Structure formats: structure tokens, C-alpha cells
Amino acid sequence: MSIEVRQLSKRFGDFVALDRVDLSVDHGELLALLGPSGCGKTTLLRMIAGLDRPDAGQVLFSGEDATARHVSERQVGFVFQHYALFRHMTVFDNVAFGLSVKPRATRPGKAEIRERVMSLLKLVQLDWLANAYPAQLSGGQRQRVALARSLAVEPKVLLLDEPFGALDAKVRKDLRRWLRDLHDQIHLTSVFVTHDQEEALEVSDRVVVMNHGRIEQVGAPDDIYESPASPFVTHFLGDVNLFHGRVESGRLTIGPFAHAVNGVDDAERAVAYVRPHDLDISRLADGALAAGRVAHIHAVGPLVRLELQRDDGAAIEVALAKERYRELGIAPGDLVYVKPRKLAVFPDGQDYVI
Amino acid sequence: MSLLNRQYSMLPGFRLAFGVSLFWLGLIVLLPFAALIVSTAGMGWGAFAHTLADGRVLASIRLSFATSLCAALINSAFGLLVAWVLVRYSFPGRRLFDAMIDLPFALPTAVAGIALTGLYAPSGLIGQWLEPLGLKVAFTPLGIVVALTFIGLPFVVRTVEPVLQGLEKEWEEAASCLGASRWQIARRVLLPTLLPSLLTGAALAFARGAGEYGSVIFIAGNIPRVSEIAPLIIVAKLDQYDLHGATAVAVVMLAISFVCLLLINALQWRVARRHGVGR
């Protein structure tokens, strides 16, 4: 089932949680809502589920207006950050809950419920824990039970609110890979909320980056990472160096340095954003963006991280391949130049508070 | 694990503290019970049976427990409702509402008794409207139930309240997403979680009700075999210097209370075991 959101708005007192948001989710897609806390991503998800009511706007399921439909009639599976398992019920009863509350006419028989619950528990690889209580499970197991429970009623849409937020790093990584595999198996239209850009980029088909109740950018993970549409997105997706300068007829000028940039409008004040691994180090000033002295060298892992100090005291972060680092033979205190392999230029003065 | 197996603690003196608390518990709680039983044992079986065979005594014991059971049941229902409103909604005067619940705790029971009697007597503010309907409250068992309901309310509210506060709203949302109706959410998700605390609250209200004296004697009217409660019988016997008779009634009340407490504990243990081990 496809989902469409039209001009959805919501305020909590003076706080604008959602500001006329438009979004469409294709059938069978796995979409990530990414943004800092308070950006409205959870509010948007809860409105799609029907757990909160919008002040204005519409939610459409397969083209039909579902805005006025009650949660229990929307056929959505919702997975909560803190699992929300019923702790007085066994794992089996938790998963069976959705089936057992169906009206008598459509409720499956006992044997059928048993069969369906067990097959779902097999799907989440927890059939051996059917008689345990939630308190006896680990966080990762609880979240898998919660997922099985939401799938039991055969929802048309699966909504996950920071599903891995309460888990530790290792489990988190395993579980998100597992979620991706599961989605490839069952192809259920899914939307999940996260504030972890790595998670969003790794798991989803498309990413929606949100800030201040608005959508900043929608696109495939690769597009978003490679060509961020705004300073905010650039910032939010990872470490980035800022170079302030001026754009004039295709040239970015930063102090004594100049760099050719194509397709950027002239601007009196502009900022170039370059990721640490998109910077190269050179002993020559040719085509450089800035100069700096090597302040620190962290040579642990496959990448060597250099911290350079510019004349004005600002720091530049550079990530070099170990091989390139050896080739250059840099030592602390050296004066070096940084050259961008790739950069994004935006006019200065845009609001990108994280 | 040994009883005296202690962990390293910031504060020394476990042995002393344990010893003193054991002594205190013995002095304050166990000693009176023991004295009661010893005193009763001294009277011999014949006299004991004779005291209890009195229809007036039996009726009073039955009345005491029946009315407090009624009151506990009423309080379970309405106490739950009050606690729910208190926890889930914010409204002007909520703090006042909150403080009002403790009033039955704080008020001298005699004051409550007089106030209720004034209200429900045939000429009272409410009584005058109930009288024509054929409903007599004051000086009947019904009046006793009213008084005990008043006394028992805070027990239920205050025991259920913290559990209600701990109820995650997400449970209701999760159940709702799974297609459960409001009634199903209440019955299958909320009630089982609340049941242990509700049982505790009801048990406390019941225990208090069975022994309540001050607030009941005015409104009850104390008509023998109709509205005379067991504690009053004890007092009456003491007034007649019948110490053995008084203790005999007391021992029976003690035994019944003890059995009730045991039953409720067993029930609670069962509920807790069924609804989530390892909490």
C-alpha cells in the first residue's frame, strides 16, 4: 500500500512540530525519516499511524483519505522505541494479541492462531522463547518480538519509531541489517524514524531528511550523501569542513586561494563544505582551498586523521588513506595545503542550526 | 542465601539494627496477639464456645465482615476510577481533589461518623430525600457500608495510583494499533497490570473496615442482631468486666482476618506469577 501525506501541519502550543509537509511513500518501499530530535519526524510517523491528529492536512492510504480513520482501523503495524510489549503476557500471547482481539466473525481458530504466531516467531528467530515473559528477554529480542506482534495482524504498512534507539551499538548494527533482509523478504511498505544518519543511509531505499518540521531533502541514500541540497543536510550527514569565501563568475575565492566551481551563482558571501575524506594534502599551493599547520595526527585504523590549524586559529580535519599519508611524509608542525576532491558551495547566511 | 548474608554497606551496624527491629516488631505487634491468645486459652473451651454460640455475637461478626467486604468492593470500583482521573487528566483544582482523598485518613473517625450520621439520618440533608423512597441508610447495615466506604477509599486510591502512573501510554497505543477496542484494551491490557495493586488496596480497605469502630457506631445505631458490629460487642463485654468474653470475640476476628489476609496474599502471588516473572 502506498502512503501519501498532503500539507500536514501540527502545533504543540507555540512549537511547530510539522509545517505543511508533503510526502509520498511508494508501495513496498523502505523509507527513513531522518533528523535531529524535535524535527517532527516522530510526529509525522504517529500521524501516519493515526496515534496523533493533525491540525491540518491529509493522510492517504492507496489514494484513499484515511485522515479521519481510527488507529485500530488503519491496519498499520507500529513498533515503538521501547518495545511496548505487554509484560503480563508471554511472548506467544503478545504476538497472538492482535489476532485474539479480532471480532468473532473474522477471528481465526485457536489452532490457526497458534500456527501463525509460531511461524512469525520463526521469522524473527525466537520460536524457542514462545513461553518466556518480556522481562526475561534482551533488548534486541524484545524488539524482534514487538516486530512479530505488529506483523501478526498482516498490516498494510509497517511504521517503526526509532526501533533500534534503545539498543547498544553491536546489537543495533545486527538488527538493522536483519531488518533490511526481512524487508527484502516481505516487501511491506515501511517507514522508520531515526536520528542516526548511518542507520538511515544503510537500511533504507530512500531517506527523508527533516528539520524544524519541514522536509529538507528526499532522495536515495547515495544522492543525499553525495549531493546534499542544503547546508543543514551537509552538516547532519557527517563531519564537514567549512571554508568561507566569495563566488565570482565560476571561481570561489578564499583569501589568497581560488578554486573553480561550476554552476554556482555569484555570491558575495559563500561557504564551501568539504568532508574530511574529500580533502587531499599537498605541499604546493596550486588549486588549494586553504593552508594550515599540522597540529595532530591520529594514525589508528585504515584512515589517518589529521588536524590542521589555520592562521586564524580555525581547525581543518582531513582523513587520508594510510598509503597516501606515508607517501607525503608529514610531521607535526609542517605547513601544508588542502585541495578538495569534491565540495558543495552554498550561499552564506542560511540557517542550519542543529 | 543466608538470612544474615549481608553485603558491604556504607553504614555499619546491621546486627544492631536487625536486633532492635526484631525486638520492636515483637513488642509492638506480636506481644498483644500472644497476650490475646493466652488470655483466651485461660477461659477453657466451654466458656469460649458459649460466648460464640450467642446469636448476637455471631450476627455481629457476620455483619462486620459482610459490610466491610461490600465497602471494599465498592471502593475497588470507584477508587480505581478516582485514581485513573487523578493520574490521567489534568484539570483545575486537581491538587485539591488529590488532598481530599486523604481526608478519611486524616479525619478523626468520630468526626466522620457524626458527619455521616447527620447527613443520612431520616431528618438529615440526604436522609430526608431517601426516606420517602423507602431507603433507610442511618441505623441500618447500609449505613455501615456507607461509613466503611468513606473510610476505605484512600487505601484503594493510594495503592493503585503509583501503578497507574507507571502504566505506559504506549501499551494502549500498541494495543490500539493491533485493532483492540477500548473495552479490550481495558480488560486485556490495563486490568491485568492493575490487578495486584487493586487487590492489595481492596484488602487494606477490607481489613480496616472490619475493625473500624469510631465512624461506624454513630451511623449504625447499634441495634442488636441488625446493626451491631463486632468491635462494639467487644467494647460492650469489656464494659461488663467480661474480659474473657471480649478476648474470645477478638480471637475469632483475628482468625478470620488472618485467613482473609492469607487468601489475598495467595491470590496475589498467583496473579504476580502468572503476569510476568522476574519483575
UniProtKB/TrEMBL annotation, chain A:
Top-rank taxon? Bacteria
What's a Gene Ontology MF term here?
A: ATP hydrolysis activity
Pfam families in alphabetical order:
ABC_tran, CysA_C_terminal, TOBE_3
Which InterPro entries does its entry note? AAA+_ATPase (IPR003593), ABC_SmlMolc_Importer (IPR050093), ABC_transporter-like_ATP-bd (IPR003439), ABC_transporter-like_CS (IPR017871), CysA_C (IPR041193), Mo/tungstate-bd_C_term_dom (IPR008995), P-loop_NTPase (IPR027417), Sulph_transpt1 (IPR005666)
| Coiled-coil regions listed | none
The record's section on SUPFAM superfamilies has: MOP-like, P-loop containing nucleoside triphosphate hydrolases
Output the Gene Ontology cellular-component terms. ATP-binding cassette (ABC) transporter complex
* Extent of the signal sequence: none
- Report the residue ranges that make up the ABC transporter domain in this protein: 3-237
Keywords (alphabetical) are:
ATP-binding, Cell membrane, Membrane, Nucleotide-binding, Sulfate transport, Translocase, Transport
NCBIfam families noted in UniProt: 3a0106s01 (TIGR00968)
Q: Would you tell me the protein name for this molecule?
A: Sulfate transport system ATP-binding protein
| Protein species of origin | Paludibacterium purpuratum
TrEMBL record, chain B:
- Coiled coil: which residue ranges? none
Its transmembrane ranges are: 65-87, 99-121, 133-157, 189-207, 245-264
**Domain (ABC transmembrane type-1) ranges:** 61-264
Q: Name one GO cellular component term.
A: plasma membrane
Q: Where in the cell is it found?
A: Cell membrane
- Name the predominant localization: membrane
Classify the protein's membrane topology as the record does: Multi-pass membrane protein
CDD domains associated with the record = TM_PBP2
What's a Pfam family this protein contains?
A: BPD_transp_1
Q: Which InterPro entries match?
A: CysT_permease, MetI-like, MetI-like_sf, Sulph_transpt2
Give the keywords, sorted.
Answer: Membrane, Sulfate transport, Transmembrane, Transmembrane helix, Transport
- What molecular function does GO assign, one term? ABC-type sulfate transporter activity
What is annotated about its quaternary structure and interactions? The complex is composed of two ATP-binding proteins (CysA), two transmembrane proteins (CysT and CysW) and a solute-binding protein (CysP).
What is known about what this protein does? Part of the ABC transporter complex CysAWTP (TC 3.A.1.6.1) involved in sulfate/thiosulfate import. Probably responsible for the translocation of the substrate across the membrane.
Q: Which family, according to UniProt?
A: Belongs to the binding-protein-dependent transport system permease family. CysTW subfamily.
Name-wise, this protein is Sulfate transport system permease protein CysT
What organism does this protein naturally occur in?
A: Paludibacterium purpuratum
From the broadest rank down, the organism's phylogenetic lineage runs: Bacteria, Pseudomonadati, Pseudomonadota, Betaproteobacteria, Neisseriales
